[in-house]
Specification:
The protein is α/β, with parallel strands linked by helices. The protein is built from 15 helices and 18 strands.
């Protein structure tokens, strides 16, 4: 549909029999979802691909009245145009409308009546010329000439969390993970652990001062029935107990509660804990961003402040392992910098070039690397094309590797607070995954972080 910048109309006196007007509109899945949100019509034949495949149409089809709404658009903006009032509508639904169909909607003056009433014949055909809708509309036409600027409509962002839904769905195939929840002595950490238990993601062992934990639960009216609590005096002791549980394989993951990240990670990374592997420990965010067509992994935004080349190699390998657990078979890894050319004045571009060479030599495996790439080139095929970048990764990145913790953390927070992204996070490189959440994370983010641990643990066990 061509955007209208200015509205005019055809008055009742100016309308003549046979006068017509048309618009064209291509149906997208977003159109269907928006119509469902607006009307509350959640018929699965229009929204659920699996259900729709077994219907008489064998595919998703538009709501019938979506075509009717397009007729209203012609009458209100084209003919008669501004000032038109709907009076009556009769429609015949002839054929389904599928995603990708381009509809031509035409209204034609058939009869003029008293009191400015006008009868329009309505006809809707698809790109093959097949009629999908017909009928008539009766309107009260405007009697005065109207010219006005079009009111600017807001952008509408569909925030559906498709990737998170898939994440949770996959977890249903696995048993709950035994998780040591360290010092869950505030609302967000205790609620997050218990909600993850209720969703069948984890079987938590709460470690901390039992009186504090129960006081929080009582204040929030949360049940601790059937939940194991190991009482210790303070957060330091909780970290030590969690390490012991990890050493004895009594738990399969650790989840941060209401304590500082440095305190928890310091205990887990201590040499005497024996939990480290031969790979550098790093953090990976997994974002579901409504404007991006795939899950987006960002690393490292929480652990390594200024990683050197060797650390970046491990950071990338950790992220690739998580991508594999998320069923991304050959993840595309964009190594970010401020520019897309190797420039000695910008050290991150030199690291990017070296890391790509390391991948070619088998020092990094399981993914496709490219860099340096600026952020726009990594996530936008259009931006990459404008700059003449030919790459398997550009515009299609699954993993974004940032130069340092500061840039990674800022990128993640921007996606969350300005890009409407929902993030989850996990620490890799130890013998078991660490569920690392922020005090500002919402319930969905905490559940998604637990789901990451479930899938990663299953992947590491070969399931």
């Amino acid at each position: 549909m061509t955007p209208i910048t200015r509205l005019t109309n055809t008055t009742y006196d100016e309308l003549t029999l046979g006068l017509s007007a048309s618009i064209e509109k291509r149906l997208t899945m977003d159109d269907i979802r928006l119509f469902a949100v607006m009307t509350g019509d959640v018929n699965p034949v229009s929204l659920d691909a699996k259900f729709a495949s077994s219907s008489r149409f064998h595919d998703i089809v538009a709501h019938g009245m979506w075509g009717g709404a397009l007729i209203s658009a012609v009458l209100g903006t084209e003919l008669p145009g501004a000032g038109t009032v709907y009076h009556q509508q009769m429609l015949n639904f002839i054929a389904p409308v599928r995603i990708g169909d381009v509809l031509k909607v035409t209204v034609t003056v058939r009869e003029k009546r008293a009191d400015a009433q006008v009868v329009f014949e309505c006809d809707v055909v698809n790109q093959a010329g097949e009629q999908v809708l017909s009928g008539e509309a009766i309107v009260i036409a405007p009697t005065e000439k109207i010219e006005s600027e079009v009111v600017e409509l807001p952008d509408v962002l569909l925030n559906e969390r498709r990737h998170l839904t898939h994440l949770f769905s996959r977890c249903q195939a696995y048993r709950p993970l035994r998780v040591a929840v360290v010092h869950p002595c505030d609302e967000v950490s205790l609620t997050g652990a218990l909600e993850a238990r209720a969703q069948g993601l984890i079987e938590p062992i709460l470690i901390g001062p039992e009186a504090k934990i129960r006081a929080v639960a009582d204040a929030l009216d949360l049940s601790l029935q059937g939940v194991e609590i190991q009482s210790v005096a303070h957060s330091h002791a909780a970290c030590e107990r969690a390490v012991t549980l990890c050493q004895t394989d009594a738990v399969e993951s650790v989840m941060k509660g209401s304590l500082h990240t440095d305190e928890l990670m310091g205990a887990l990374l201590a040499k005497q804990a024996g939990l480290r592997t031969d790979r550098r420990v790093s953090h990976v965010f997994v974002f579901d961003v409504p404007t991006y067509p795939r899950p987006l992994l960002i690393t490292d935004a929480a652990i390594n402040i200024t990683p050197d080349l060797t650390a970046k190699r491990d950071i990338i390998q950790n992220a690739i392992e998580l991508a594999h657990a998320l069923q991304i078979e050959m993840p595309k890894v964009a190594i970010l910098s401020a520019v897309e050319t190797v420039t000695p004045a910008i050290p991150s571009t030199l690291d990017a070039a070296a890391l790509c060479t390391m991948a070619l030599r088998g020092q990094i495996t399981g993914g496709i690397l490219d860099g340096p790439l600026a952020f726009d080139n990594a996530v936008s095929e259009a931006a990459a094309k404008i700059k003449g970048i030919q790459s398997e990764v550009a515009g299609q990145a699954d993993i974004l590797v940032t130069p340092d913790l500061e840039s990674g953390n800022m990128l993640a927070k921007q996606l969350e607070y300005l890009g409407h992204g929902e993030g989850s996070g996990i620490v890799l490189g130890l013998r078991l995954p660490i569920i690392l959440t922020s005090r500002a994370d919402d319930a969905t983010s905490r559940l998604a972080s637990c789901a990451l641990a479930v899938l990663l643990s299953a992947h590491q066990r070969g399931l």
